[in-house]
Amino acid sequence: MITRRFLLKSATLAACSAAAHPWLSTMTFASVPGDNRLVVIVLRGAMDGMDAVQPYGDKGLRALRTGLSVGPQGGAHDLDGFFALHQDLGDLLPLWQAGELAFAHAIATPYRDKRSHFDGQDLLEAGTGNDLPIDQQKGGWLNRLLQDMPNARAETAYSVGTEEMLILSGKAHALSWAPDARLSLSPQARLLLTDVYHDDALFREAAADAEAIGGSLPEDRMMGAKGPSADAVKLATFAASRLNGDTRIAAFSLAGWDSHARQQQVIGRSLGQLSAAILTLREALGANWARTTVLAMTEFGRTARENGSAGTDHGTGGAMLMAGGAVRGGTVYGDWPGLAEGQLYQDRDLMPTRDVRAYAGWAMRGLFGTEAGHIEGTIFPGLDLGPDPGILR
Amino acid sequence: MTPDFPSIAALRLGYGFAPHAAAPGDLAAVMASVTEAARPDQWTTQAAADAQIQLAESRKALNAKEIAQEDYRRVAQGLNARRLEVLQRRVARALDAPCGFGERLVQFWSDHFTTVAQNPPQYLMAGAFVDEAIRPHLNGRFGDMLFASSTHPMMLVYLNQNTSFGPNSRYVKARPEKRLGLNENLGREILELHTLGVGAEYTQTDVRELAELLTGLSFNIRDPQRFRVQAAEPGADTVLGTSYGGPGTDGMAEIARVMGDLAVHPATASHIARKLAQHFAADDPPPALVEDLAATWRGTGGDLAQVHAVLAAHPALAATFRQKARQPFDFLIAALRSLGVTGEQVLAMEPSRVNQVMWGPLTLMGQTFGRARGPDGWPELAADWITPQTLSARIAWALRQPERLVDPLPDPRDFLVTALGGTASEALATAVPRAESVREGVAIVLASTDFNRR
């Protein structure tokens, strides 16, 4: 019995063997699926949306939190008289003012109640609901988007980082590379390995891709990245370098959001990384920033109440960050559910009022013209897209 | 080229050649390694539960300001070091085994029954899973391994069986506000992944009935009780046409009975025969090998010793030589073995060194230890492992690590023979002497297709 997966992999290999540099050789002349670019950042560990974007205008907030999320009085930046931006996202204020930064609040995936990071992230990346059998939960929603894009090629989508990104895994061929991956060979070693790999298509092509990708890295810039946000800067730099070429979709993840204790320090560090990643993308993308949408999403929010160790525990509703020249910024999107008694989910978490996938769905509809029926039936099976929130310019 | 038996035994069945161990000369030596691997290591459920309790209580004490931050950090760091030790001990046994077949089987069966650790104490529990559910049954019956796996705390937690309750059980009826109920996760995976295989003829009803039969299984770090009758769904359950449980039966014994029946089911024989053949012989496994393994399984009621022996002696292994890519863990062990690194050296490594030489590189190569993506385990196909960035990570290891581990480095021409015996291709044998330095010569051997395939 030959499995479908085996056939898929074999077909990919056979195609690779056809040319020495299967994607590089055609890169310059390839038609690409439009000029718009989508970057998805998965925030692993559950970002506290109520701290990143603090609803200080809601009178209920102070009853739930005293040390955290106190709004402008605690150093946060007022956004619109109701929400305030966490001080460690302060470097992004110019983007807010330029209309290039927005948030969606009180959002969630369909995942409920078990509040497991692992399952929550899997569901976020799979883009499915809870009701599908496990074999249909394989593969990520960005890959299903890729399958639907005309003129998509391997380099159209890039997974960046050492870990396998479920969000881009699936039938369509996407490229992957880790900024820390290096192929640093002396000319002689390169020559010898070329001989050694010559008769083995799998090794020959992987090495050719590795050499091609590795050779095109903005080496000096990335080597220079230092400090607590160095990894985020490297990921963003690499993603931008691809997006400035033929890549239109890039995905990477930032971890470290699980702020059960000492949240101020934990989330401060992580927000600093997110902020650095966004600013790096903006700078490195140059003119292409105008056609870029960045979505930073997390598996779930955190408890509305502060816990006993100056942190928060796993919750439900949270927030998503949207940035880019293509975004209609300066707005916190969503219906605010309120924080008063009876308004919390299970008397514990921010009540989600919209599926986070609806925002991603409207983004891909605007960026790539994906049909609504395809989004609701295939890319995010079971999703009700609902009315257009108008997040893109 | 048809490789000789010692080369087959070392490269295809084991973790490769080592200068400190002669390759096994016959089938008896190969099978002796399975007996050796069946001996448990040091990890136990009790120790893992104690570690979990210790961490929880330290956190509580820290929150209550009874201990200082650095006291808590010391506990957490200690646990982290023991997490690394699970890898170190696994590597050490694979390095010191004269023939690696037994340890390769530990890897295969631990992956067949995949669990994923979420935190340091769970790594210890995953270690206990291997020692308590896998190793003792390597030479025994698959049905016993299946029962041990399906009732082990690591599996109960990983596949949510510890939160599955009979909807009509006394336990659930007494707590209506908690809305407890059935979780099908373990029941489904037992049928789909561990026994029959997804293509077999079972239905959603079988999944649900098996899940109901499994209710009552539980695990709590402070309670050794593995089965609580008050949480079990009352009444009999029918799985694949056979009735289990019901009035007057013993819950645990009935779970053992259904596992015994699933273990000898012809679909289970075919499913696992194919997996074994695919893992040891070729991504597209030779039908004759699959059928011989399945026939042995059916004929012996899933006697693993006999199934393993048929595999080890099968001519298909020579016929499909080098059709498999070594997975990163195999690559790491084979590289360390060929360099003559011993278990003792690995066990003596500081945590930072373990991260530098083993844990970190495995992650860069795409196989973080103990962290398969899902319950279906690590992928099997060569194309899953040889990607641009993961091949680069192998080449980087080959260039950087050997000189940190071995002083002086071996002459590359000698190393070619140490690492590959007489199996090196002409292209590699030509390339190695042309390397500009010893370091690069050794690296070319380790990065070669010959070495990265088996």
Structural commentary:
- The complex is a heterodimer of chains A (393) and B (454).
- Chain A folds into 2 domains: 36-179 and 227-379, Alkaline Phosphatase, subunit A (3-Layer(aba) Sandwich), CATH 3.40.720; 182-216, no CATH class.
- Chain A is 35% helix and 13% strand.
- Chain A has helices at residues 4-17, 24-27, 49-52, 61-64, 93-97, 117-126, 141-148, 187-197, 201-215, 219-224, 230-243, 263-285, 356-368, 372-379; strands at 37-44, 53-54, 77-78, 84-85, 101-108, 157-160, 175-177, 249-255, 292-298, 318-323, 332-333, 354-355.
- Chain A is globular.
- Residues 1-30 of chain A have low confidence and may be disordered.
- In chain B, α3 packs antiparallel against α4 (69-96), α4 packs parallel to α6 (120-134) and α4 packs across α19 (351-364).
- With 454 residues, chain B is mostly helical.
- A two-stranded antiparallel sheet of chain B has the order 1-2.
- At the A-B interface, α1, α6, β7, α8 and α9 of A face α20, α21, α24, α25 and α26 of B.
- Chain A: This is Twin-arginine translocation pathway signal.
- Chain A: It holds the Pfam family DUF1501.
Return the domain count of chain A.
Answer: 2
| Radius of gyration of chain B using CA atoms only | 23 Å
Q: Could you state the CATH homologous superfamily of the largest domain in chain A?
A: Alkaline Phosphatase, subunit A
CATH class descriptor name of the largest domain in chain A = Alpha Beta
What is the element string of chain B, with H for helices and E for strands? HHHHHHHHHHHEEHHHHHHHHHHHHHHH
Most extensive interface between two protein chains, with residue counts? A-B, 49 and 49 residues
Largest β sheet strand count, sense and barrel closure of chain B: 2 strands, antiparallel
**Average pLDDT reading of chain B:** 94
Shape of chain B: globular
Largest sheet of chain A: 9 strands, mixed
Question: What name does the CATH topology of the largest domain in chain A carry?
Answer: Alkaline Phosphatase, subunit A
Give the termini distance of chain A in whole angstroms: 51 Å
Strand content of chain A: 5-15%
Question: What structural class should be given to the helix and strand makeup of chain A?
Answer: alpha/beta
Number of helices of chain B: 26
Q: Alpha-carbon distance between the termini of chain B?
A: 14 Å
